Amino acid sequence: MENNVIPINQDQARLGVTWSGQYGELPDLVFYNSADSDIRQFATEAVRGGSIPGIQSDQTVSFQDFVIERFPSTVDRPYNLLQLRPKTPFGVW
Amino acid sequence: MSIEDEVAEYVLFIVEVEGEDLVKIFHSPNPNEIRFVSVTRSQFLLHSDEDGFLPFRFHGGPYPVTHASLNESEYLKFVSGVFGLPKGWEPLVDLTPKLSERAMSIEVGVVIGEGYLPIHWHLPVGSTAGSLPDSLSLWDVLWNNRSTVVGFAHSHPGGGDPHPSSEDLTTFSAIELALGRRLTWWIASEDGFAAFRWQGPEAYQYKGYLIADTAEPLWVRALRDRSCYRLPPGKLLSVSVTPEGEQYSDLLGEI
């Protein structure tokens, strides 16, 4: 049987996206060191295109106020992971 | 493990003595771990970096001190007796002259869940008198409670009617978009309290609703206490320490 598991290089990562109460990971890998703006763009296009399993297509999606968490690979998770989540700071000014 | 091993690298003591707030910040050479200890008129609690307030016994207690009224010498004896300031530690900053101006208040947040009750106190490292930093752990709490969370409250220094900042509004919006539903956002000043909800149609268009102090939820007082607001002038501090075996939830119930 052919093995369909795609190896993930050290400079690559999975990209997890949180949107509208849903979480999913892009089918395609991204570069771990991609710029934040590029990651937001990848995620925006993917959500608009409905290509993320677990997240319904949404043409109004905007990750303007979201931040990127970068998790290096671990023993339990042998691949890099990027996660796009909402920012959470508060302030008087 | 000795107390010296467990005592935090940064320890913030706030005590009011003869009308003056005294704060001493101590530090150790090891920057890997940060803890805060705060004393307010109603509690003596440990701030951890991500977990909010923890029982005092976390530092190797419990200590059989309850509701002690301390003068300055008693306070210093108490602190040194409890913590036994580690060798090599020196006062980093003595802000005593400034504390009468409430310079050491700090923003605090709390996640509100079912029944409009607190489910998570948010006191991240890096908080200041006027800001709460970005926090993955806060997002984890909101996400893990996304089906039941009703909102988030945080404190703003100073008095008067609270208003959300630009930072607040963009955070409100981001969290709601990620959760897929709208929340209520409360802000408490030293003497004001208001709720904000998205009105639209613009993304950051939130409407405020002032809430009379007689209608404030009970946790608003705890929020102000933890923000070091409302320290009574001219009175000695009363210190409460978690008795042995007492659960944190019990401690919350006392506030």
Question: What portion of the residues of chain B fall into strands of 2 or more residues?
Answer: 25-35%
* Unreliable stretches of chain B: 1-103, 231-255
What is the end-to-end distance of chain A? Answer: 60 Å
In total, the number of domains of chain B comes to 2
Shape of chain A: globular
Mean pLDDT of chain A: 93
Structural overview:
- The complex is a heterodimer of chains A (93) and B (255).
- With 93 residues, chain A is of the alpha+beta class.
- Chain A is 15% helix and 31% strand.
- In chain A, strand 4 and strand 5 form a beta hairpin.
- The termini of chain A are far apart.
- The relative contact order of chain A is 0.25.
- By secondary structure, chain B is of the alpha+beta class.
- Chain B folds into 2 domains: 125 residues, no CATH class; 118 residues, no CATH class.
- In chain B, a hairpin with a 4-residue loop joins strand 12 and strand 13.
- The radius of gyration of chain B is 19 Å and the shape is globular.
List its traits.
A: 93 residues, alpha+beta, B: alpha+beta, three-stranded antiparallel beta sheet, 15 strands, 27% strand, globular, disordered N terminus, disordered C terminus
Q: Care to give the gist of this entry?
A:
The complex is a heterodimer of chains A (93) and B (255). Chain A is α+β, with helices and mostly antiparallel strands.
Question: Would you spell out the secondary-structure blueprint of this structure?
Answer:
The complex is a heterodimer of chains A (93) and B (255).
Chain A: E1 12-19, E2 22-25, E3 30-31, H1 36-49, E4 66-71, E5 80-86, E6 90-91
Parallel strand pairs in A: 1-5
Antiparallel strand pairs in A: 1-2, 1-3, 4-5
Chain B: H1 3-6, E1 10-17, E2 20-27, E3 36-39, E4 44-47, E5 53-54, E6 68-70, H2 72-83, E7 90-94, H3 96-99, E8 109-112, E9 118-122, E10 131-132, H4 136-144, E11 151-155, H5 166-179, E12 184-188, E13 193-198, E14 206-210, H6 219-226, E15 237-239, H7 248-254
Parallel strand pairs in B: 11-12
Antiparallel strand pairs in B: 1-2, 2-7, 3-4, 4-5, 6-15, 8-9, 8-11, 12-13, 13-14
